[in-house]
């Protein structure tokens, strides 16, 4: 076993993926996270901060192990599902996987158009550009990056995520002098506390969710390390790094915002439906914060777009392959075909700018939670190549958290 002697060093390759997974998770939602997670007060947030790190790490590790458990190295998630659960289940889960991720891509196509448009009008003081043209240029630029090779995409994500982390961290520090004890005074009732935790867990799960990129990430580890045991070890190490990064930077930002504002102000921000940075900029009358708001949103949406594109493309191509049963597939042609499909659907939605998108996204919530939390845990019980992961406490933890998240999302829909 040479793989055990192999010292687990951080390589450029791992760091690039760690940053990419962080970027996939931190979408524009991070700007609304303090409002959604903080309205319940400080103490439920402390419990969430304790839970969300292990939740994020163990759940994504399970999904990565699931992808790596295939007898055929290089299989993506849609192929692994078919291999383990049969053709019919393969088609169904691939379909669900696609429909859980695709709406998020639509939201990002729409969101990047709105962000850039708002920046041009409000910060640069120029006239609003032609929406049809603006959305086409932005979406075409994002998709063309995805048609280059993996290294380019990882490199670009790195460039986007560094300023993102820097701005989030700088803002968190900047707010420290403004911290007040208003939130610490809020002592929720026990039932209120439990309800709040229950309803807010999905908010955190999806703010930290990088499952759409996990399949491509796991395949990439396989190509890099060849040895399956080594690939799995490095994948776990990288996922732990991503989860830690998310916990430190995102939760610090959330806490800093929550400690700066009072419960009443957070409720007001929710009512105004603006991001936390816009709200802070108005409160402190600080033009710099209002400049950083659109920047953070732009960096966050772009980096998150890449990770979600990987998942949506995989789902769509997997569906096409499963429906045609064609063994001789030109991958390059298929890549270009899916790119054209995404370009026109995303462009169409961005031009129309519908308000229904959030609703579709929330319908995808339970599916993502099932694929991320429940499916890998079920596979550990049922699939021979995954049985070596049985009997770990983390499996119970992930299953329970997954069920809590799913029940809360379903409850939220009704």
Structure description:
It is found in: Cell inner membrane. It comes from Lonepinella koalarum. Its main location: membrane. It is a multi-pass membrane protein. The longest helix has 38 residues, at 287-324. The protein has 414 residues and is mainly alpha-helical. Helix content is 80%, strand content 0%. The chain is built from 18 helices and no strands.
Compile the SSE list and pairings.
Elements: H1 2-5, H2 12-25, H3 33-38, H4 42-68, H5 77-85, H6 87-123, H7 131-147, H8 150-175, H9 182-185, H10 190-207, H11 214-225, H12 228-260, H13 263-272, H14 276-284, H15 287-324, H16 331-352, H17 357-382, H18 393-413
CATH fold title? Amino acid/polyamine transporter I
Supply the number of structural domains: 1
Average pLDDT level: 89
The CATH architecture classification is Up-down Bundle
Number of strands: 0
- Kindly, what is the distance between the CA atoms of the first and last residues, rounded to a whole number of angstroms? 53 Å
| Element order: H for helix, E for strand | HHHHHHHHHHHHHHHHHH
Q: Summarize the main sheet.
A: none
- Which CATH class applies here? Mainly Alpha
- CATH H-level superfamily title: Amino acid/polyamine transporter I
Sequence stretches where pLDDT stays below 50 over 5 or more residues: 1-5
Portion in helices: over 70%
Shape descriptor reads globular
Radius of gyration: 21 Å
Catalytic activity: L-serine(in) + H(+)(in) = L-serine(out) + H(+)(out)
Pfam families: Trp_Tyr_perm (PF03222)
GO molecular function: amino acid transmembrane transporter activity; symporter activity
Protein name: Serine transporter
